[in-house]
Design goal:
CATH class of one domain: Alpha Beta
Bound molecules: zinc ion
Largest sheet: 6 strands, parallel
Order of helices and strands: HEHHHHEHEEEHEHEHEEH
Number of helices: 10
Oligomer: single chain
Distance between the termini: 37 Å
Length: 251
């Protein structure tokens, strides 16, 4: 079992010792994930699946659109802001996230790798056009069957969420980028992810096999706890803010 710590100084030292500190964040950083996108028996898996999208599109959008709206209403937490500060200070070199809410970008992180994409943008697979939530809401309202369709002249193809649906493979470029970053990391920090869903559950093994220290922060035990350099068994919100206050103060 790795040493359990909740000492911000030890964590700050682990960040500062790394030239390439790579951070992976879970679905809902710094707070409880009320919507479980990774659980096979959850509502998301039942209703936001690739199968539901293809076979029952009206029902799919009845669930997906209001869910996406509620995700869009979230605001960045102090944990998002702390990570953005650590990035600006050059302490965190890269960020990989399982979250689909774009809050890292809103907090000021540059170019986070979103391995599940985002639920806030829809796209047309035929012509590539993208749509924001308000436009999609209007298209749903205006459609007899409640299915939004592309408005490009002559296209009218049904739109789909840009993010990954349950039962669908993750976007390959994002997964490849995540693996590259993990391979380059000389310390790897996991914040509020239970590392339960493949392939991302396998990501920490990449730095581990190279001997890079692994730091796990989160309420849920993971399969990597015994291999970790430091385990902090609580939500990341407080401790990552304390770390940023020590080594990356300022806006
Ligand atoms: Zn189109």
């Amino acid at each position: 079992m790795a040493p359990q710590a909740s000492d911000p100084d030890a964590l700050a030292a682990a960040f500062l010792a790394a030239e390439r500190a790579v951070v992976l964040t879970g679905l809902r950083l710094g707070g409880p994930e009320s919507l479980d996108l990774t659980h096979a028996h959850g509502e998301w898996a039942q209703r936001a699946s690739l199968e539901a999208f293809l076979t029952e599109p009206t029902r799919f959008w009845e669930y997906f659109y209001p869910t996406a709206l509620s995700i869009a209403a979230r605001t960045p937490t102090p944990a998002h802001e702390a990570i953005a500060r650590l990035e600006r200070a050059g302490v965190v070199s890269s960020l990989i996230t399982q979250s689909v809410d774009r809050l890292h970008s809103r907090a000021g992180s540059t170019d986070p790798v979103e391995v599940y994409g985002t639920v806030l943008v829809m796209r047309c697979e035929r012509c590539g056009e993208r749509y924001g939530l308000p436009e999609v809401g209007a298209l749903i309202e205006g459609a007899d069957d409640g299915v939004p369709r592309c408005t490009t002249a002559g296209c009218e193809y049904p739109l789909r969420p840009q993010g990954t649906l349950w039962g669908e493979a993750l976007p390959r470029p994002a997964v490849e980028r995540a693996w590259e970053l993990a391979a380059e990391a000389d310390a790897f920090f996991v914040l509020d992810s239970d590392l339960r869903t493949a392939p991302i559950s396998l990501l920490p093994s990449v730095p581990l096999t190279r001997g890079a220290p692994l730091v796990l922060i989160g309420e849920t035990p993971t399969q990597y706890d015994r291999y970790a350099h430091i385990v902090v068994r609580s939500s990341s919100a407080e401790i990552i803010t304390a770390v940023a206050d020590r080594i990356a103060p300022g806006p």
